[in-house]
Each structure stands twice: as C-alpha cells, then as structure tokens.
Design a protein that fits this description.
Elements (H helix, E strand, L loop, with lengths): L1 E2 L2 H11 L2 E2 L1 H6 L6 E2 L11 E8 L15 E6 L11 E6 L11 E8 L7 E3 L10 E3 L6 H18 L11 E3 L4 H7 L3 H14 L3 H12 L5 H6 L1 H11 L1 E2 L32 E2 L14 H22 L1
Parallel strand pairs: 1-12, 2-3
Antiparallel strand pairs: 4-7, 4-10, 4-11, 5-6, 6-7, 8-9
Helix pairs in contact: 3-8
The structure holds flavin-adenine dinucleotide.
Flavin-adenine dinucleotide (FAD) binds next to helix 1 and helix 9.
Length: 312
Amino acid sequence: MIVTAGAIQSPAILLRAGIGSPAALRALGIEVAIALPGVGSNLRDHPALTFCQFLPPSLRLPLSRRRASFVALRYSSGVEGCDRSDMYITSAARAGWHRLGARLGLYFLWCNRPFSAGHVSLVSPDPGRYPSVELNLLEDPRDLERMMAAVRMLARLVINPVLNAAPDDFFPASFSPRIKRLSAFNRANGFAASVLGALLDVPAKLRHLVIKQFLLNGIAFKDVIEDEQALADFVRRSVFGVWHPTGTCRMGDPRDSHAVVDPSGKVIGSENLYVADASVMPRLPTANTNIPTIMIAEKISDALLSTELSLA
Ligand SMILES: Cc1cc2nc3c(=O)[nH]c(=O)nc-3n(C[C@H](O)[C@H](O)[C@H](O)COP(=O)(O)OP(=O)(O)OC[C@H]3O[C@@H](n4cnc5c(N)ncnc54)[C@H](O)[C@@H]3O)c2cc1C
C-alpha cells in the first residue's frame, strides 16, 4: 500500500490508522498499531513575504505580453549556523494580468533553509474533520532575523533611481481575499483594476497618500523598515508559507526515534506500507518542492518495482 496524500493528509491518514505518537492516539481513542512519534511533526514550509513597487510607465510591460518576466536572486544570509544560499528573492515586472498589475512590480522573498518546524495533528478520528496544521514559521529566532535582514536588503536594492527612487512607492503586497478576488480573469475585474490603476497614475504625493491610507492603514512603510521592533512585528504579522509543506513523515534511519519512513519509503515497523510524497523530505530543498517531490516518487517507485522483479 502506498500513501501519497501530501504533507498535510499523509500523516493524518497514518494517525487515523493508529500509526503515530501513542499518547496522542490514545487521547483520541485510536488503537495504537505502530508507535512512531515523528508522524505529523517536523512540518516545514518556506516562510515568505511579498512586496510591490509602483513602476514608472517606461518600465511597464505591455498587456499583450501575457506572462511577466522574472529575475531571481539566491544568496547567503551569512547568519551564523545557516546554510549557504539560504535566501531567495524573485522579482516580476507585473503584479497581475490587469491594468493595476501592469503598474506594479512584484517581489517575493523567502527563506530557503528555515529552522522552524510546525506540526500536523488530528482533532478527531473522523476522516471528515480536517487536521490541525501549525506552521510555526518564525519559531526559530534565526528565521525572523534573516527575514528582517532580507526586507532591508530588498528595500536597499529596489528603492533606486533605475527603478523608482521614492521610498513611498515600495510597500508590502497583500494576498487578502479582496485582492485574490480581483485576480480572477473576467471583464468586471478588468474594469475595476483599470480604475484602481488610474488612481496610481497621479502626482507622486497624491499616490503616496492613496498607498498609505488605502493599502497600509495609515502607516508609512519606510518608517517600519527603519524601526527594529516595528519591522519584527510586521514580519511576524505578514509572514506566510508558500504552499511547500514537507517533512511530516520524515525519512531517516530506522534507529532514529522520530523517523517515520526508512530510506526506501517504507513506514518503519510496517510490513508493506509506503509513503511517497513531499512528507518524506527530512528538510526543505533550497528550491520549490514540486520537482523534488516527483523525483522522490520516481525513486521510490523504481525501488519498489526492482524489488518486485527480483522476487518474481
Ligand atoms: C497554490 C500552490 C502553488 C504551488 N506552486 C508551486 C510552484 O510554483 N513550484 C513548485 O515547485 N511547487 C509549487 N507548489 C508545491 C507543489 O505543488 C507541492 O510541493 C507538490 O504538489 C507536493 O506533492 P505531493 O504529492 O506531496 O502532494 P499533492 O500534490 O498535494 O498530492 C496529494 C494528492 O492526494 C490527494 N488526497 C489528499 N487526501 C486524500 C485522501 N484522504 N484520499 C484520497 N486522496 C487524497 C489530494 O487531492 C492530492 O491530489 C505549489 C503548491 C500550491 C498549493
């Protein structure tokens, strides 16, 4: 049997089958089949923040270019004990498909090698109840420190005469429900975004007032960047995971009490139960997670097939 339900649901399936921490299982009235305390722990995701910058007309992409162009920067934070290439920033010359998006550059920054870990746990044995998911993205102070330094570095890089030298034209983006709704591709959103976009093409002082009052609840973001406490609060409040959950059925040495699957993907202590998805990653890759997940699944299926063939 091969479980491939992803890093949130695979541990939930194992837990409901009685594979997990005995104390947590008994608390929910689930009979313990295999005691493996690591199931659901070690939940990792890349902590991320997004920013926008008003683009002068000369830097805007024509709407006929369907895709934004991207440039990415991978760099080392230099914070003690952190891996090289632990930080990542992408920039896109358009923040959306519409006329508002065409006026804004979009920056995405994240920590490739976070130390913080969260967990997935059951709230009920009922498979109809979604498990509890705690990302704990900035639990480790080194992750907060690196995210704060990255915000300052990004601001230094992009508040620049080549792009736009006005600090008030650089501000945090938001994936609020309203912005998400505006991203849907339809005529009504196209019209609304062209009105909103036109509101940005006004003299700079007026635009900065619009950005401050309507997007930042009256706060000047340049003041936040310069104030250690305000920046820490902003990062804690705004950080989100980039949909790269991993690690909740961690692969490892069977003697490691928190490993869940052995190096072949087999659930430790089981006869014939495998996990083959992002949940087996012991730690996050220094990259997006889709291709590494496919690679893991290919390796596990190759190993299973070769075992089958040698037994035949
Ligand atoms: C919005 C979003 C954007 C992303 N963008 C990127 C990107 O640009 N680049 C990149 O590399 N990665 C990206 N990722 C991450 C990437 O998609 C994942 O790392 C990858 O899909 C993980 O694969 P998986 O097999 O572990 O899990 P999944 O792809 O989630 O597959 C699990 C499958 O199991 C099914 N399932 C769950 N529970 C059950 C159940 N109880 N019974 C039956 N079926 C079940 C689910 O429906 C799903 O089809 C993104 C993810 C999201 C959500």
